[in-house]
Structure formats: structure tokens, C-alpha cells
Amino acid sequence: MIFTTFCALALTGAAPAKPRRIVSLNTCADQYVLALADPAQIAALSPYGHDPELSAAVGRARAFRTLKRPAEEVLAIRPDLLIGFPSGGSVVGAPPGEWRTLGLASADSYAMILTQIRQVAAAVGHPERGEAMIARMNRDLAAQPPPKRRGVAAYYQRRGYMTGTGTLVDDLMQRVGLINLARRLGKPALSQLSLEEMIAARPDWLIVESGSEKVVDQGTEMLHHPILRAIPRIRVPQAWTVCGGPAYVEAARGIAAQLDGAAHKGTARVNAAPRH
């Protein structure tokens, strides 16, 4: 590897010059960069920037180059700002002090998303855009009325994995008034729950990834077991929950809309395609 990982830079003191060649190193960073930087500032996005299953901003991302061999390409681009990994060592081959880096840990709450928006906005030289985005997200979330139906929900994934406490999904559930089954059972951020245990727990809802309607392998087959059919499902695109960012608002709206739809139709089968 030409470079290993990237160290976070504390952006303090006098504001540096606006970067002219920004490279994003992961899909989560992509979404902040696309929302806050000028198009002319963006030199490259992460390898999965064009993947609609992972990127909630794929519509914008398609206009930009994505990295295929990050180690070699980053050295060739010679960016003046790298945004991506949360911690690490140095960029091998980079002249000392030439490349600024900003690390981003995985956001596990709305509060952390707001912090990261401000960090990225300052790093790309547009702090006012960060504040405008935060104001818009706060306004949109405040305008969302509480769902008419609530209850206990399990975010259930392939092979019986369940998303637990201290995660962005858990934060979203609390926002829309749902009780996370994993929290009730005292489960960690990620755990496995068998079909028998799930039925015994009797959740009111299963939250599953959009696109899980089809069985594509043994991992997804579990979600289609007959004993789960009686539990209504809320479908959310993976791209809305895999990263923090502006898609948080879409995820909250989508879940609330499906809960309200179920109040009228007795089901939560609403198509929730990402908006760009």
C-alpha cells in the first residue's frame, strides 16, 4: 500500500485557504463533500460513490470521478484536502504539510451528523453552507408530525442480524417514536437473533432494507420465512442508514410515512426510493 490510513487534522486557528482538489475516501464522506463543496473543488470520490445501494447522493456523484485504485490515484491527484478515515498514520509520499486530512468516524446519532456537517463545511471553505444545511434539516424534522402508530420494531437483516443500541438506526427509531427491540432485549450494536427468538419477542414491526423482497441467497432467505409473514414491514433503503448526513431526514420521513400508511391500510409496504 502506498498509503495506509489518514490522520485527523484539528481545524483551529486562522481559516486555511479553500482547497482546490478535494478527494473523498469513503461513501459517507462523499455525501458531505457533494453537499458542501463547489463542484470544481471535487477531484475524486470514493470507490463506491456510484453505488446506489450505498450512496444516498448517487445522483450527484455520477458527475464526478471515483477512485479505482485509491493508493496510486491519490498520489497522482495530489489533493490539498483528503476527507475520510477516522484515524491513522501518515500519507506515504506526501510532502510534509502539503496535504490536509479530515477524519470522519461513523455517525451514530443526529447530533454527530450536525457536528460532522460543520467540520466538513469548515474544511472545504464553506461554513455558511453547513449552517444552512443544518437549519434546513432541523426545520424539516420539526415539520414532521409524530406518526399515528408506533410500537416495538426490530431492524432485521440478512442472516438474522439485528441493529441495536448506540447506532444511527436506533437514533432514528427513537426520533419517530419506535422502541428498538434490541434495546428492550439489552442487545449490543450488532447481534444475531434467531427466527424463534424473534417470534417469541413479538415486535410490532420489522424494519428491513428496500430490495429485500426477493430471495437472492441464504442470507436473505431467512427474511422470507413463513413465521415472519404476520409482522408488518417498514422498508428503508440501505443508503439512507449506512451513513449519516442529509439522508437522515429522508430516513425519518420514510419510516414515519410508512407508519402512518399502516394506520390507514394495515400495512407498511410503501416504496421509499432515494431522492437526490
Structure description:
It is built from 11 helices and 10 strands. 36% of the residues lie in helices and 13% in strands. The two termini are 34 Å apart. It is globular and about 60 Å long. This is Cobalamin ABC transporter substrate-binding protein. Residues 21-274 form the Fe/B12 periplasmic-binding domain.
N-to-C SSE string, H for helix and E for strand: EHEHHEEHHEEHEHEHEHEHH
Question: Structural class of the secondary structure composition?
Answer: alpha/beta
Strand order across the largest sheet: 2-1-3-4
N-to-C CA distance: 34 Å
Helical region count? 11
Main sheet? 4 strands, parallel
| Average pLDDT taken over every residue | 85
Basic shape: globular
* Helix residue percentage: 25-40%
Distinctive features:
36% helix; ABC_transptr_periplasmic_BD; four-stranded parallel β-sheet; 276 residues; 13% strand; alpha/beta; disordered C terminus; single chain
